Structures are given as structure tokens and as C-alpha cells.
Amino acid sequence: PSKITKIACIGAGYVGGPTMSVIAQQCPHIQVTVVDLNVQRIAAWNDPDLSKLPVYEPGLDEVVGEARGRNLFFSTDVDKAIHEAQMIFMAVNTPTKTFGVGRGMAADLKYVELCARQIARVADEDKIIVEKSTLPVRTAESIKTILESETKGIKFKVLSNPEFLAEGTAIEDLYKSDRVLIGGDEDEDGQIAIQALVDVYANWIPREKIITTRLWSSELSKLTANAFLAQRISSINSISALCEQTGADVDEVARAIGMDTRIGSKFLKSSVGFGGSCFQKDILNLVYLCHHFNLPEVANYWEQVVILNDYQKHRFAKRIIDKLFNTVSGKKITFLGWAFKKDTNDTRESAAIYVADELLQDRAEIHIFDPKVSEEQVHSDLVYLQKHRRSQATAYEYEEITSEEIKKLVVVHTDPYSAMEKAHAIAVLTEWDEFKTYDWQKVYDTMLKPAFVFDGRNILDRTKLTEIGFNLHSIGKG
Ligand code: NAD
Ligand code: UDX
Questions:
Q1: Which ligand is nearest to the CA of 229?
Q2: Do 472 and 453 form a contact (C-beta atoms < 8 A)?
Q3: Which ligand approaches the C-alpha of residue 285 most closely?
Q4: CA–CA distance, 278 with 346 (Å, rounded to integer)
Q5: Which is the catalytic residue, given 27, 243, 278, 290?
Q6: Which CATH architecture has domain 224-474?
Q7: Is 396 assigned to a binding site?
Q8: Which residue's CA is the closest to the ligand 2 atom numbered 6?
Q9: Residue nearest atom 25 of ligand 1, based on CA coordinates
Q10: 165: which of 170, 348, 412, 470 fits an S-S bond (Cβ 3.0–4.6 Å)?
Q11: Is 78 among the annotated ligand-binding positions?
């Protein structure tokens, strides 16, 4: 089929939800059904109250509000959606394996494999399968093998269409993508399938921004893009350590080098370390692939990006402990922010989790305020880390902290001022805009003295806070 009228997407998460909502909004002539095994998640996508959508993204509520019920549907009936659609996106999770072969490194492809098996079983006419999930190079080959294992005389065409949206700006990114990448086979059927997907995007993306490549190039481009982006953050973070020792200012250095058009100014913001569900996972996946293809020098080169990031998170936690006279046990440390970046409720791999864990090793009392993250989420992030530490992450010594201790030592607030009252120190972990506009004099007055602030995002007004009397420590400012 070259004119697509029905699309299904398996996986209603941070990628499947927003991407399909935008496709549906921009292509009213296409029926888009997003399916998921997670009943609660689908119920939340269908909630009449648009503030209850399972993914928080600026502008997403409006897009869903416009298209849902018209040509956008959320459902748990995976078989029906597969059966009806001419084109099926796979947007399931591909987390780092936590067990067995490739533990702590390789991508776990079990959800992708399950989808492929289900499609093979249910389909009874030709389908185009689109890899939206981020996958290791040559996964399309495995998917094809599974699809073709049920010999029903049906033709499947597999395309790779990696997603480049960033959380917090997903809708904007989907409206104005720098590029849309579609990889497919070079044969005639492959080209027809590519054209069908190009036609979908061409409804709102200028044609010259839609690039088509071979399958393997497309799959590898996604891992490469994330590796390059993360590499820039680790590079500037490595320099932040040197700034702190020498009296240079990392923001000034970033500005000075970023004005060189060959370097560019984006992704040079020094921080407590990058988080999110993608960067670490995708680099480790790349490292694993390089080892698989016997390229240890290449593997080690990229692994260093993750090692430096572990170091940056550790450096931040250690600095808090050092400055608080070498112990935080029993002290109230307040975290502003828990999400991995602003404007999202996503906490996966957030630097805050690791910094909290390291402070908990010393039995600090951690009080948290984040505008979008719930107490359940914070606790479950910390409990999860105890069970699934990457054995490679050796930045600090640790022992397992029980969930009872976590419940006792970690308090989540819904009011920032109560979170900061009587605190020994405040640490900024996420760059939420509202943190800049708090009444810092009022905060200072209620805190224990000396009043320490550790700004892990360099967003607070240094002159003002120092004048008030805070003992302020920023990233990369000597
Ligand atoms: P997610 O965990 O938010 O969502 C995945 C969903 O798939 C879950 O709701 C899960 O229940 C569902 N699922 C898993 N197996 C299923 C099955 N067999 N049938 C039906 N539903 C199933 O993950 P995400 O953040 O949306 O990421 C999805 C993929 O996109 C990953 O490969 C990720 O690397 C990639 N990606 C993510 C981002 C991002 O910003 N989060 C950006 C680009 C690419
Ligand atoms: C990333 C990629 O940007 C996106 O293209 C891909 O599709 C998915 O992975 P995401 O993880 O959602 O997106 O957010 P991003 O804006 O890249 O931020 C990732 C982490 O890096 C965050 O913790 C952020 O705070 C941090 N970061 C980003 C910095 O520390 N400094 C920077 O200059 C930029």
C-alpha cells in the first residue's frame, strides 16, 4: 500500500504518545491508533481531563485535545490495531539489559521481539513496519527474520525511522524537526515503503528535511547523534572540573568556544551530569556493538563519555559532603528538582537519583521539591537503583539501602519553602525556571547557617545570593 490511511503504533510512552498525536493532528485523513499493554497508561491517555495525560510535555494537551476521538485513538487492543493498520510503528522501550549476556551494556530487545512476533501472528495482509524505538545496528534484520517466520505469503517491509525529539520540547521538535530520517531497503518494494512514510511526514515537514538512507545507516545515525550530543556535555563537564581548580568560569569558556561556528553554542551547558532515558543507554549500546565487532579502541573512546558523566555526578555529591564538614549524616539537604531536565515529569537516569544515593550512603535526610514529580516516583527511582546498579559504575563505594530507610530518609514536598525550611544545604538538580524567582531572602532567613547552596545547573543569580549571605557553590566556577 502506498497511500496510508491507517497507522498503528505499539508503545504509548514518551515517544509513541507525542509522535502519534502530532501525526494525527497534522494528517486528519489518517486514522492513528496507539496501543499499549499498560492498561493504566492507556486509561490516562484517554482521560477527559487533559492535565492527567501520562506524559507531561508543553503543548501536548492541546494536540491530544484536538485529535483524540477524531482520528487519534488510544487502546489496549493490540491485535485489532495490528490487523487494521497498513503501517505499524514500534515505539516500545529498549532499556539497557540488567541481567545475563551484555548486562549493563547491551539494549534489551525483548519488547521489540515480542511486537514482531505478535505482528507476524496477527497480520493477514502486507504491512510496513517502522522501527521508531532506538535499536542496535542490524536489528531490522532480526525483525525481518521473525516476521517472515510465519509463512503466510504476506510481504513485510521494515523501515528505520529514529526519533530525535528531546523531552520537554517534544511538540516543538516534532513540528519543526531539523530533519526526519527514514532508512529502508534499496530494492523496489523498499523504495515504495520509504515513499509511503515520506508522504506521511510531507504533510507538515518540508520535503528537503526528509532524508532517506539505507537501513543500517539510519539505525546507526541515531546512536551516533546521541553519542555526539552527550560527548559535548561530558567534554564541557570535564572542563568544569578544571575551572574549579584554576579560577576559570565554565560558562565563560563555553560562550567563548561556542561562538566558533565550527563548534556551535548548543549542548555546552555544564551541569551535574546528563540524565534521561537515552544518552547513557544508547552510548552503552554503541560500546557493546563496538566490542561485538571487535573494535575495542572505538568502544573505549565512547565509554569514556559515560565514565566522565558518572564522575561529574559523583563530584557534585562529594563536594556537598566535603563542604558540609565531611559529613551529611542526619543533616537536612534539600533538592530543588528531581526530573532529568526541566519541563518534563520524566526521571529516568536523572542525576538527582545518583546524587541522592551517594548522600544516603552517609545517611543524609533528603527533602525534595519538584514541580512535576510525585513522591511515589522518587521512592521507586531510589529503590530501583539499589537493585539495578551498573556494575561498571564505580565512581563511589556503596552498600544497598533498604526501602524502609529510603522511606524514612527521603521526604517529598509539594511546597518549595517547606522543603527548604531549616535545611543545612540546598542543591539545585534540575533547571526549572521557577527556582530562579523564589524569594531567596525568605529562604535564607529560615535556613540553618552557614546556609549552603550547591547550584548543579548554574541558574541562580550568584551576585544576589552571595549578597544575601549564602555560601554558594556553582559548577565550574573557581
Ligand atoms: P516508554 O517506556 O515511555 O514507553 C514504551 C511503552 O511500550 C511502554 O508504555 C510499554 O508498556 C509499551 N510496551 C512494551 N512492550 C509492549 C508490547 N509488546 N505491546 C504493547 N506495548 C508494549 O519508552 P519511550 O521513552 O517512549 O522510548 C521508546 C523508544 O524510543 C526507546 O527505544 C527509546 O530509546 C526511543 N527514544 C526515546 C526518546 C525519549 O526522549 N524518551 C527519544 C528518542 C528515542
Ligand atoms: C536526547 C536527545 O537530545 C534527543 O535528540 C533524543 O531523541 C533523545 O535523547 P533528551 O534526553 O530528551 O533528548 O533531552 P536532552 O535535552 O538531550 O537532555 C539530556 C540531558 O543532558 C539532560 O539531563 C540535560 O539536562 C542534559 N544537558 C543537556 C546538559 O547537561 N547540558 C546541555 O548543554 C544539554
A1: 2
A2: yes
A3: 1
A4: 12
A5: 278
A6: 3-Layer(aba) Sandwich (3.40)
A7: no
A8: 164
A9: 14
A10: 170
A11: no
At residue 358's C-alpha, the angle toward residues 355 and 362, to 5°, is 135
Cβ 94 under 6 angstroms from ligand 1: yes
The domain segmentation of the chain, as residue ranges, is: 6-205, 224-474
E strands, 317-470, are 332-336, 365-369, 410-413, 425-428, 452-455
Amino acid making up residue 235: S
pTM: 0.95
Of 319, 376, 321, whose CA–CA distance to 347 is shortest?
376
H or E element that contains 200:
helix 188-201
User: Please, what's the largest Cα pairwise distance for the chain?
Assistant: 75
* 341 carries a ligand binding annotation: yes
pLDDT tens digits for range 340-392 = 999 999 999 999 999 999 999 999 999 999 999 999 999 999 999 998 887 65
* Bridge partners for 212 per DSSP: 182
Task: Give residue 26's Cα distance to chain centre.
Answer: 25
Ligand 2, residue 351: give the atom nearest the CA.
23
Contact indicator for 422, 447 with CB cutoff of 8 Å: yes
The string over 84-117, giving b where at least 16 C-beta atoms fall within 10 Å of a residue's C-beta and e elsewhere, is ebbbbbbbbbbebbeeeebebbbbbbebbeebbe
Residue linked to cell 525483525: 143
Beta strands in 39-174 (DSSP E): 72-75, 87-90, 127-131, 156-160
Sequence-ordered list of residues with C-beta below 8 angstroms from that of 222, at least 6 positions apart, any chain: 134, 135, 162, 163, 164, 181, 282
Ligand 1 proximity of 111 Cβ (cutoff 6 Å): yes
Choose which residue among 9, 82, 92 to substitute to test ligand 1 binding: the one with the highest number of ligand atoms within 8 A of its C-beta: 92
- Is any ligand 2 atom within 6 A of the Cβ of residue 268? yes
Q: Do domains 6-205 and 224-474 have the same CATH topology?
A: yes
Instruction: Let me know if 290 is a catalytic residue.
Output: no
CA 293 to chain centre: 27
DSSP 413: E
pLDDT tens-place string over residues 132-159: 999 999 999 999 999 998 878 899 999 9
Q: Residue 458 is placed in which grid cell?
A: 548554574
**Binding site membership of 222 for ligand 2 (Cβ less than 6 Å):** no
